[in-house]
Amino acid sequence: MKLAILGSGPGGYVAAVRAAQLGAQVTVIEEKIIGGNCLNWGCIPTKILVSSSEMLSKAKRLQEFGIEMNGVISPNFSKILGRKDRIVSTQAKGIRNLFKMHGVTYKEGRGQLISPSQISVALTDGSSETVKTDRTILATGSRVYELPGFPYDGKHILSTEDVFKMAAIPKSLIIIGAGVSGCEFACIFRQLGTDVTLIEKMPRALTAEDSEISEIFEREMRKRGIRFLANSTIDRVDIQNSGLRILLADRREIRAEKALVSVGRALNSDGVGLENIGVRIGACGEIIVNEKMETDVSGVYAIGDVTGNRMLAHVASAEGSVAAKNSIGGEERMDYSAVPSAIFTTPEIASVGFSEQKAVELGISVRSGHFQFRALAKSHIIGEIDGMIKVVSHETSDKVLGVHIIGPHATELIHEAVLAISQGLTTRDISKIMHAHPTLSEVLQEAAADVHREAIHGPKN
Amino acid sequence: MNPDDLKYHKEHTWLRTSGKKVTIGITNYAQDALGDIVYIDLPEVDAETEANSEIGEIESTKATSSIISPVSGKIVQVNDDLSETPEIINDDPYGKGWIAVIEIDDASELDDLMDASEYAKYVEEEAK
């Protein structure tokens, strides 16, 4: 079985390896750089910036931990980017090695579907060739979206990719859009010393998260000196020599050296010849697939961002795995019931399952339990006491429906909750499981117990 | 312990009245129960508030707690010193640790509040 995959991001490369493991003869065609957005401009590089910025924040607290420091601590952006480049290149090599190990053919160039079994590839060296295939997986991803009236110039108005081309840390920065990446960049640059203003047209930051989490995150931003303007739309932008001036609809004026636009992504369903074979596309450019990740055209699958599903690398990988199995005759279906979300703000935010608002909206009767990190010894030991966890459970069955965390290492802690939800565990199940002491993992046990007002370190009820 | 010239609200805030303006803060009992205060989210000047509604948040090393307004009115002043040094509340809850000044809408709301001895009894009951 010959399988061609367009795109080598976390969707495409995982699908390639999985299909190769299952015996397919796989060719991956990548237009830009191996690893896609995740490795080159998204997940990985941004988390490298997070690591440097948090390292700086920690270094500034050395004395609090009883360590004397004589000297100046300051960030060097070009060195931070140098570290980023080294890590990205190691990871890219890792994917190439996986391809080699599994006999996956990798081609760099733009692939275009001519028919369901033929893909013409304009290779980066200028030549072209036709790849013959039995099955195809479209994993072409997404790209930065350009806000009308806000053209990226790479100097004053930056996309989330342009950030990695800056020569230095800006003194002041306006970030437009308080979604996941807007909030992450706000925390990164604030910790690196930038004066940050975050603008959002909705009433709160991180609207996909439980509202209690957004509320705490907004307070954490205030604590750290990030200026957050909710319910704000932009009326006008003036580029000036020294920076830019943004006029809000309510006549407020904000000046900064640069503006970073982080307002969603455009889907890469255009220019790959989908019209040649009749693959159906939705109103936002998303490729329509069924739960087996197959498009309307038999034998042609689509995974990841380009399907318009939740734009998360791990979702793309899971879909890639499903599509790979199905492309060689499997009958797997995608299950989105326990998708973790991980936001690398300071403090971190992670969630899985229903928010309380969503459950109520769906008419489900729920109970909730809360627990504050500051009530745990481990939080005090590591000096990170901010944040809390919230467990949402079904009122009668007691099954865990959602878990929402803001606090230290939230993005790691969430996986116990993912397991609980995927396996249908109850809050009683979780509170009975032993959790090692002293660890941050105790928060889930305590919050699960708090659903029944039985948390040991919680307030008396 | 609790100054006699102040009025007290069941959510552990105190009030000092001066004409239409009242200065508020949290009581000694509240600061002691919270422990070391590390952060305060102050209300915004000019914001309108209702009696018994949340106007801010206090974080200590042990807990977080809402600041509940004892009266309805407009916030006309806040204690900005608390942004940098919230621990003043622990040191001097009835003095330098004041939180905000509210211009009250309805002076009759003050009649519902407790005096120092009533508050002392209330706290004793609550601690049981």
Domain count of chain A, please report it.
3
Roughly how much helix do the residues of chain A carry, as a percent range? Answer: 25-40%
Provide the CATH top-level class of the largest domain in chain A.
Answer: Alpha Beta
Strand element count of chain B: 9
Strand order of the largest sheet of chain A: 5-4-3-2-1-6-17
Q: What does it look like?
A:
The complex is a heterodimer of chains A (461) and B (128). Chain A has 461 residues and is an alpha/beta fold. Chain A folds into 3 domains: 2-144 and 266-327, FAD/NAD(P)-binding domain (3-Layer(bba) Sandwich); 157-263, FAD/NAD(P)-binding domain (3-Layer(bba) Sandwich); 347-450, Enolase-like, domain 1 (2-Layer Sandwich). Chain A is 31% helix and 24% strand. Chain A has 13 helices and 22 strands. A 7-stranded mixed sheet of chain A has the order 5-4-3-2-1-6-17. In chain A, strands 8-15-9-10-11 form a 5-stranded parallel sheet. A 5-stranded antiparallel sheet of chain A has the order 18-19-22-21-20, sandwiched between helices. The longest helix of chain A has 25 residues, at 77-101. Chain B has 128 residues and is of the alpha+beta class. Chain B has a single domain (7-127), classed as Beta Barrel (OB fold (Dihydrolipoamide Acetyltransferase, E2P)), CATH 2.40.50. Chain B is 21% helix and 35% strand. Chain B has a 6-stranded antiparallel sheet with strand order 1-2-3-9-8-5. In chain B, strand 2 and strand 3 (21-26) form a beta hairpin. The longest helix of chain B has 12 residues, at 116-127. Chain B is globular, with a radius of gyration of 13 Å. The mean pLDDT of chain B is 94. The interface between A and B is small, with 10 and 10 residues.
